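Pair request: fold both.
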Amino acid sequence: METKIKVTGAVILTDELNTFVERKVGKLGMFLKKDPTALAHIEIGTTSAGQRIGDVFRGEIHLTFAGGDLYAEAVHNTLHGAVEKTVAEMRRELRKIKDKNRDLTRRGASEIKDFFRNFGK
């Protein structure tokens, strides 16, 4: 999975932050089953220029892959917390799609089985 990281606001992309984001987002690859076309656009920044108290940092992930297009966003009072919450939100979205596809496959298989069960009657 290819990742592109963009920082906005008062955030500086350090080597430590880059490896942290790569490691966290890399864990989402298990849902994509080594899809070579998967592309993750990650944006990390501040919510506004003058805010100093509260949820100041935000993270966004826009994930495009062969099966769809997903977006997750989260805000937190720390930079690492914002990245973790965003990755957790994206993981939740990926699980939802995985479960939906599994349910549709099972429902279709059940209908085919019922069709062949009643085929000879």
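--- second member of the pair ---
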Amino acid sequence: MTATAETASYPRAELLVEPDWLVAHLDDPDVRVVDCDPAETSMLRPHIPGAALLGVHPYLKNESGVLPAEQIEAIMRGLGVSNDTRVVLYDSMGSIMAARVWWVLWYYGHTDAVILNGGWPAWQAAGYPGSRERVSPPPGDFTARANQERIAACDVMLPQLARGELLPLDVRDDLEWSGAKPAPNAQNQREGRMPGAIHIEWKEFVDWEHATRFKPAAWIQQRLEGAGVERGKRVVPY
């Protein structure tokens, strides 16, 4: 995939696509566009023409973490995703939902998944049309193969934390970080944060005044380095 001028400055530019790229590839048979907003949002607004609605909560998780392989396979196959499908993910919430679905696909071995930079707001800002037509793609044959190195289990993290080998990056809001938000609640079962964690709320990386696109790569790098996130150290966001 060739990066556009707007995404080329990112170190992993191939993980993002722009609306101009997507509108030119909507009819590609190997491209599947997935609207990752929760159903209560995606059902009430138009979507990108040809996009399949995820239909389940985009966190794709259960009590123990990510949904098991057989459930992910069923969901993705129902969306028309096969092992060789390029999956373009978007939402209307600053890409937090699309990024979660991207991570689940990455964890289960599907590396040809990208995020639409800015999602639905960027698509609208570019002047491209929306559709309310429901899409029923032909079933795919996606096979989920978990890569345990792409998830940080607590029993693995604790010794590495003690040795200073990894850095927890807490991307929750200020109240969650400080422990001021009462627990238990829908998001947290305990108050506070991991020992040694650095805090940058995820919303800081989104340019909310520029159609919810990601902020420039240079700004992101400066923000991370200024907070103490060292390049080359293993970073575990949560």
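Observation on the second member. The radius of gyration is 18 Å.
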